[in-house]
């Protein structure tokens, strides 16, 4: 089994672990961490896909043999977008916790409505 295939399997396994945590998570912080693991696996997969199976790619005779950097750039951009999404999720979690005093996501559909059973004290 080649190193490239082992890296592909590892990246896919990390993505599946993040997807499982995203689906099975009941706590908002765990869901955000699972989303972060999913993004990590995706970026790892993009980095692995930028390396050809034989290790290098040639663009013709007489030209140097290099690896393809395009997917690495995409992985860097995806990392930045993933970080922004996680930060926005943390802000939403803080607002949700301040209004509902819980981080359980079973009733997240009405997340930004004020709770009926509590009075707002000013």
Structure description:
This protein has a single domain (3-110), classed as Orthogonal Bundle (Helix Hairpins). The radius of gyration is 21 Å and the shape is elongated. It contains 3 helices and 2 strands; from the N terminus they run ααββα. Strands 1-2 form a two-stranded antiparallel sheet. The protein is mainly alpha-helical. Helix 1 runs antiparallel to helix 2 and helix 2 (28-49) runs antiparallel to helix 3 (70-100). 61% of the residues lie in helices and 3% in strands.
Biggest sheet, open or closed, and with what strands and sense?
A: 2 strands, antiparallel
CATH topology (level 3) name = Helix Hairpins
Question: Whole-number radius of gyration?
Answer: 21 Å
Structural class: mainly alpha
Low-confidence stretches: none
Mean of residue pLDDT values: 80
Q: What portion of residues is helical?
A: 55-70%
Strand residue percentage: under 5%
Strand order of the largest sheet: 1-2
Shape designation: elongated
- β-strand number: 2
CATH architecture descriptor: Orthogonal Bundle
CATH class: Mainly Alpha
The number of helical runs is: 3
Number of domains: 1
Give the H and E element order. Answer: HHEEH
Distance between the termini: 65 Å
Entry summary:
With 122 residues, the protein is mainly alpha-helical. It has one domain: Helix Hairpins (Orthogonal Bundle), CATH 1.10.287.3510. It is 61% helix and 3% strand.
Describe this protein with a few key phrases.
single chain, 122 residues, mainly alpha, Helix Hairpins, two-stranded antiparallel ribbon, 3 helices, 61% helix
């Amino acid at each position: 089994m080649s190193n490239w295939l082992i890296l592909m399997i590892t990246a896919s396994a990390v993505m599946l672990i993040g997807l499982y945590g995203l689906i099975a998570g009941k706590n908002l912080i765990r869901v955000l961490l699972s989303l972060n693991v999913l993004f990590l696996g995706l970026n790892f997969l993009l980095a692995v896909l930028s390396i050809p199976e034989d290790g290098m790619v040639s663009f013709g005779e007489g030209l140097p043999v290099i690896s393809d950097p395009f997917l690495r750039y995409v992985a860097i951009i995806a990392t930045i977008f993933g970080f922004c999404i996680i930060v926005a999720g943390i802000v939403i979690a803080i607002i949700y916790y301040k209004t509902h005093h819980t981080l359980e996501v079973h009733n997240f559909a009405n997340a930004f409505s004020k709770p009926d059973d509590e009075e707002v004290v000013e």
